Amino acid sequence: MAATRPFAPLRNLNAKIAAVPMIATVLVVFIGCTLWTVVYSFTSSRSLPTLDFVGIDQYRRLFTTSRWIVSLRNLAIFGILALSFSLVLGFILAALMDQKIRFENTFRTVFLYPHALSFIVTGLVWQWILTPAYGVQKVVRDLGFETFNFPILTDGRFTIYAIVIASLWQGTGLVMALMLAGLRNIDDEIWKAARVDGIPTWRTYLFIIIPMMRPVFATTLVIIAATIVKVYDLVVAMTNGGPGIASEVPAKYVYDFMFSRGNLGQGLAASTIMLTTVLIILVPWALYEYRPRNRTLGVGK
Known about the structure:
Elements: H1 13-40, H2 57-62, H3 66-97, H4 104-116, H5 119-130, H6 136-142, H7 159-184, H8 188-196, H9 201-212, H10 214-229, H11 233-238, H12 250-260, H13 264-289
Helix pairs in contact: 1-13, 3-7, 3-10, 4-7, 5-7, 7-10, 10-13, 12-13
């Protein structure tokens, strides 16, 4: 006698009940707060939210404010440099670690350890290292090079590059770990075939290994890009946006206008622009990762 199948909505009921808190969190916290942010970005809200709609005035003011333009420029510089250098350095370190070197676990721990630190700690450490009064500049001058200058932290033209250096120090280890995991999934037969064919190692990496690791690169790219867009605490710890507004970034702009200046509408408009930037990054990645893949159909069995 055939067993009766449970009513469709009751199938896997325990799993569905367990997923309710997560679904509620997504709906209320993420989707709900996102919609709230977008709606109130079109209002004249100051210290408290009000439904006094002013159209796109907040956005028009946003893109005519020099501080916001500087923050976008800094984010572009920081993003391009941090993204490119972290991917390149992370992959090179992973390739070196993949050579079955001695003390691999020790080196992997050393390179990955900075990622365990908060950006506040990283910022304070690098602020000390790069401050001319007692950092790199002072050490070099004490060695006898009294004309040596290294004002990367105090000269507004170079401050954003100091933040890039600190970010690379903290984040490259994570990229290395992700790349190493991808390299360890490469079949050894591919390396053996490349050696038999006499293909140089660098050509094997460039034309065979890297294309095979495209999903790893895509995932790493999204992780780094999302971190770049919301960078805040590293900037606050190192420079607090200074000197002047030389190292201002969008996340700091949002925080200052929402909590320090009591201009909720302007802060939410800036926050919406940041959200749009993240979506521009995540949506293409999601479409690529979850696109339907063609499956080869067997013919004649």
